[in-house]
Write a structure and sequence with these properties.
The protein is 58% helix and 8% strand. The protein has 853 residues and is of the alpha/beta class. The strands form 4 sheets. It has a 6-stranded mixed β-sheet with strand order 9-8-10-14-15-16, with helices on both faces. Strands 3-2-1-4-7 form a 5-stranded mixed β-sheet, sandwiched between helices. Helix 12 packs antiparallel against helix 13, helix 14 packs parallel to helix 20 and helix 31 crosses helix 32. The longest helix is centred in the middle third of the chain and has 32 residues.
Length: 853
């Protein structure tokens, strides 16, 4: 650590005995610590060659910056985009120091050509990543900034080539190696320059010149110590990319395939990140050959190369694994193989949670997040309708992982619980390590069994375990990748844990795409081997869900008995229409699977997350006694993803303290929102409160942001009756009005520490509404409160009326504090007030929903 601290800010020579002892140990590491590869060589040069023991000055600073840049770039290969930026800055600074140094210091630094190559290559890598953002309607990066990286990279190569004659004797063989390295990186940059362009007069001649230059790089045998061997290996991938560039001929593509196969067969090739990149290039080349020649034999070979690139990338470079899966999916989807495409997309989404841990800025994540939000519904529905158990499990894991990332990024946090009151961070890490070890053991055992089955299977006949073996291999690679992830947050649950979480109540994953919807029901232990129960919802499309939501929005702006100019229906009629449609198109086939179980947890995605699925039923009859609602047999609650249930369930304890908060209504909302009947609601809760539960009332004049945050730290249940609002474009600014102009925002809740409260009842308008801008669509007050550490939240999906709310809350608290699960208590309360004729209109009672464990 001291060595790296000094490298970060090289200064005067450290004179303490401890520092010198540290250097001595680093110069002579034990044999078990010796490393191979670029970073190992750089570390040996840095410490064993004594570069740190040079006198303080430009030469030592340049060596230090070069070493730091290599370490950062190596970290960037695992997907850490911020490390790529740091590497570029270090190499730039090194060149600046070299330019300002005198001739003696320049001569003492023998790596200036390597710095130029490395900077150009890193800039090209960043350009290649950033240009993906330019396809967005509103890209997070400016096009001129993206192009500037490529232009700077070409300038770095030109300056590096100009420096060589003055830096080394022209007769030195090492000079040829330096020139070859510069040629190789230039070839890479040229391939990037024309990657998205159609073949034209300029592109063909420049790519042909690149191929000619790379062909001149001589073969170097294994064991070469001059750098020629690593240079020759590096040029092979660049040569293949140049050969398979825009306008490539069939002969060029075949030669590119031959070059890549030769590269992969090299006996001294051990860098898995390079192997993964070569396998991906091989897959692309074979798909181009299949298209160009019409020879279908290339397609299975390409699919195999994509799979191998994914598996190797999961161990070494998560970005390559993501690219391999998404490119495979793109080819398959183009060719009409929707199920194959869905499987590949699902594999990509399995990488997403770990990949986004290693990227800090939103711009770095935007491309993957946008794809997850756009393609995930199609992928999940296709897999849900598959007859293969492995596909349905993959659908659940894809939904779980991607939604966890969307939620975490919408909240500006890493996936996993922000606060764990029951255990310390250390114990959470230990628990995560134990889960990882258990998953590795289980998957290894299953994979060994499948391999034995494959060996015993008669030759020439189809073996049905191939899909499961491929899924096991992918999952095992990702578990290993996750175990190396530096995040100390809880990882997304695997299939075995999801089944365990469904033991308390079935989990119902719902998704909606342009072509229809689907549900996957995890009912518990019986699903561990058979997979989730699929429910096809062909009538539920994105357009249908949008129209249902539009009717609810129309109902919100109407007055009692006023008819909508758009639909010609009153508020109550519009709500009943929505409730009926949700039953017929969504919940009825799901209810058949649930078979009247007491409660279930819904995990809806997209627009489904803002529809009152819990209120589905039939209420088209004029007679109320003919109405039937699902909540009368099965209480439905919501969760953003199963990981939220995991963290919330382990935090529950006995309820002994309840705080009732009722701020004065803000002037801007007092006239437009329904009037508050605080006295009736407070009286009802008091009458339902059992002995042993202490209740504290916070008067309007005492309500403040600090007072409310303090209540979250000192009470078990926070009941808020007032007004709230939702900022759909920026959900972190949604919140609760505290009187005057004060508000408690979602971002305040996430920043809260030492939260004691387990439950919150938000008897305010629209407190369960989520944002409508990706990737924030799953973000709202309930999700934020669960992320902050609460177990469950009762909130509203649109406006609420306190004249109706008071009897509902009274019955809810009577059931809940009497021992019922909060979701069951809410469903019973809604059924009771409905049957007693107090809240016949679903618009009045269906607004309340429970989110949490």
């Amino acid at each position: 650590m001291r060595t790296h601290d000094e490298l970060e800010e090289p200064g005067e020579e450290m004179s303490t005995v401890e520092a010198h002892e540290l250097r001595k140990r680093l110069r002579t590491p034990p044999a078990s610590m010796l490393e191979t590869g670029v970073i190992g060589g750089a570390r040996q040069a840095m410490f064993a060659a004594g570069h740190l023991d040079r006198p303080s000055g430009p030469a030592r600073r340049m060596y230090s910056l070069t070493y730091l840049a290599l370490v950062r770039f190596d970290q960037a290969l695992t997907g850490k985009r911020q490390c790529l930026d740091a590497a570029i800055i270090s190499w730039r600074t090194c060149l600046e120091v070299w330019e300002a140094a005198g001739e003696a210091e320049r001569s003492a630094f023998a790596e200036i050509h390597s710095v130029a190559c490395s900077l150009a290559g890193a800039l090209g890598t960043r350009y290649n990543l950033n240009r993906e953002f330019l396809v967005h309607p509103d890209p997070p990066v400016r096009p001129d900034e993206v192009r500037a990286d490529l232009e700077e990279a070409f300038r770095a190569i030109e300056r590096g080539a100009a420096r060589l004659p003055s830096h080394r004797d022209g007769s030195d063989p090492q000079l040829q190696v330096c020139r070859q390295q510069l040629q190789a990186v230039k070839a890479y940059l040229v391939s990037l320059k024309y990657a998205d362009m159609p073949a034209g007069p300029g592109s063909g001649s420049e790519m042909r010149a690149v191929v000619t230059e790379l062909d001149l790089v001589p073969y170097a045998p294994p064991g070469d110590a001059t750098g020629a061997r690593s240079t020759w290996l590096g040029t092979r991938i660049f040569l293949a990319q140049a050969l398979s560039g825009p306008g490539a001929r069939i002969s060029d593509l075949r030669r590119a395939e031959e070059v890549l196969l030769g590269f992969l067969e090299a006996p001294d090739l051990t860098e898995e990140s390079l192997i993964a990149a070569a396998q991906l290039s091989l897959a692309t080349t074979r798909m181009l050959l299949a298209d160009s020649t019409g020879d279908e034999r290339y397609r299975p070979l390409a699919q195999d190369a994509f799979e191998q690139s994914y598996l190797t990338g999961a161990r070494s470079n998560l970005r390559t694994a993501w690219d391999a899966a998404t490119q495979q999916a793109g080819w398959a989807h183009r060719d009409g193989h929707r199920l194959v495409a869905a499987r590949a997309y699902a594999a990509a989404f399995r990488v997403l949670p770990v990949l986004t841990h290693t990227q800090i800025t939103r711009a770095d994540k935007e491309s993957a997040l946008a794809m997850a939000a756009d393609v995930l519904p199609m992928c999940a529905r296709e897999l849900a309708n598959s007859s293969a158990t492995e596909d349905r499990i993959e659908a659940v894991l894809a939904l779980e992982g991607a939604r966890g990332v969307l939620l975490a990024e919408g909240l500006g946090l890493r996936a996993g619980p922000a606060t764990d009151r029951a255990t310390s961070r250390l114990s959470s890490t230990v628990e995560g390590d134990a889960r990882t070890a258990q998953a590795i053991e289980y998957l290894t055992r299953e994979l060994d069994g499948l391999r034995r089955q494959e060996l015993a299977h008669p030759a020439g006949t189809e073996w049905k375990g191939a899909a499961r073996m491929a899924a096991c291999q992918r999952q095992l690679a990702l578990v290993h990748a996750r175990s190396r992830d530096e995040s100390d947050e809880a990882a997304s649950p695997d299939w075995q844990e999801i089944v365990t979480l469904a033991g308390d109540a079935p989990l119902v994953y719902l998704t909606v795409s342009r072509d229809g919807g689907a549900a996957l029901v995890v009912t518990g232990e019986e699903c561990r081997r058979t997979g989730p129960v699929p429910v096809d919802l062909p009538a539920l499309t994105v357009d249908v869900a949008g129209k249902l939501l539009d009717r609810l929005h129309e109902a919100e702006v109407l007055q009692d008995r006023q008819k909508s100019p758009k639909y010609g229906r009153t508020r109550g009629q519009l709500t009943r229409d929505v409730v009926n449609d949700l039953w017929a198109q969504v919940m009825q086939p799901i209810a058949n699977v649930l078979a009247d179980c007491e409660r279930a947890v819904l995990l809806p995605g997209g627009l489904l997350g803002v529809l009152p699925l819990h209120a589905a039923g039939t209420c088209a009859s004029q007679r109320v006694d003919k109405w039937r609602f699902l909540l009368e047999t099965t209480a439905l609650s919501y969760a953003p993803h199963a990981a939220a249930l995991r963290s919330a369930a382990r935090s529950q304890q006995a309820i002994t303290r309840l705080a009732f908060v009722h701020p004065a209504p803000p002037p801007a909302h007092g006239a437009s929102q329904p009037p508050l009947n605080v006295a009736a609601e407070l009286s009802g809760i008091r009458s339902a409160r059992p002995t042993g539960v202490t209740m504290t009332e916070i008067e309007p004049e005492e309500v403040s942001r600090a007072r409310l945050l303090d209540a979250l730290r000192t009470t078990d249940v926070l009941h808020f009756t007032g007004h709230g609002d939702v900022n759909s474009s920026n959900p972190l600014d949604s919140g609760l009005h505290l009187g005057d102009d004060a508000r408690l925002k979602v971002r305040d809740l996430l920043a809260a520490h030492e939260v004691r409260a387990m439950f919150a009842v938000l008897s305010a308008c629209g407190t369960a509404v989520t944002g409508d801008a990706l990737p924030d669509e799953v973000v709202g007050l309930p999700a934020a409160l669960i992320q902050a550490g609460l177990c469950g939240i009762v909130a509203t999906q649109w406006m609420c009326f306190d004249d109706f709310t008071a009897p509902l809350m009274t019955e809810f608290y009577r059931c809940w504090l009497g021992g019922a699960h909060p979701s069951v208590a809410l469903a019973r309360a809604q059924a009771t007030v409905l049957r007693q004729g107090l809240l016949v209109n679903p618009f009045a009672w269906a607004t309340f929903a429970y989110t949490g464990a």
